[in-house]
Amino acid sequence: MQDLIVLLHEYKDVFAWSYQDMPGLNTDIVVHKLPLKPECKPIQQKLRRMRPEMLLKIKEEVKKQIDTGFLQVSKYPEWVANIVPVPKKHGKVRMCVDYRDLNQASPKDKFPLPHIDTLVDNTAKHSLFFFMDGFSGYNQIKMAPEDMEKTTFITMWGTFCYKLKLNPAKCTFGATSGKLLGFIVSERGIKVDPDKIKAIQELPPPRTQKEVRVFENSMGCVLGQHDESGRREKAIYLFENSMGCVLGQHDKSGKRKKAIYYLSKKFTEYEAKYPSIEKFCCALIWTVRRLRENGPMADPID
Fold first, then answer.
1. Domains observed in the chain
2. Does the pTM of the predicted model rise above 0.70?
3. Helix (DSSP H) and strand (DSSP E) numbers for the chain
4. Rounded Cα gap, residues 22 and 75, in angstroms
5. Cβ(236)–Cβ(276) below 8 Å
């Protein structure tokens, strides 16, 4: 552990403690471009109302980013979007922008994204973990000059566009376990993040027939299935627009059972219109294939 501390001190310059510590990537390496479909016309959103206390936080963040050089005033922009404030911990606000109109007008990049369950599986079973978070990563790559004004957003104080290291407050080194994409990963394996199931754990039990019916409807349909050993049990939960799967295992005594794997999937627009029996088939096939890909369908773990 002492060697790790020495290493972090040696490379302390990779950490950004404020916006001023972020020079951004060299434009000779990369710039962010926003190509548009020729048939799409520019859209200018009207200014939305916000609570006074939220406006003060947004004004503070805008001023901070202008002073740092992330933003510049935009004059006569064709594309205009609204700010969407997202509350963060400790009373802070993440300043997001509603770029849905711009995204629809921009061609989609076909770069493949990794499966979350594959990432989690590959991370578990290690003895030490290092969690690192990019400091305001969105602002690390600068915008191409000709595309800057497409990022324009509107405020009560004018319109602005984007010009365009690691955040030490969110970094963890040498941990024996930690949160990753909604799971707790450790040397022992994978567990559900308690924060993700807190609402279910604190849900009061139904007390009337009406409450029971409401609870049953919200739970959807359940399909149970055992493997050849009789120790593994797969439960598939079907809802109107999504499905979930829990793979459980009994101990050798057969008296205790614990969950060892989780899967979930949002139905596509077409799958959501399937009748119940076809949804069952769709869910069953998808679950078996995914479990086979990731290995938990092997022999029971003792």
1. 1-113+137-162 (3.10.10.10), 193-228 (no CATH), 229-296 (3.10.20.370)
2. no
3. 7, 14
4. 26
5. no
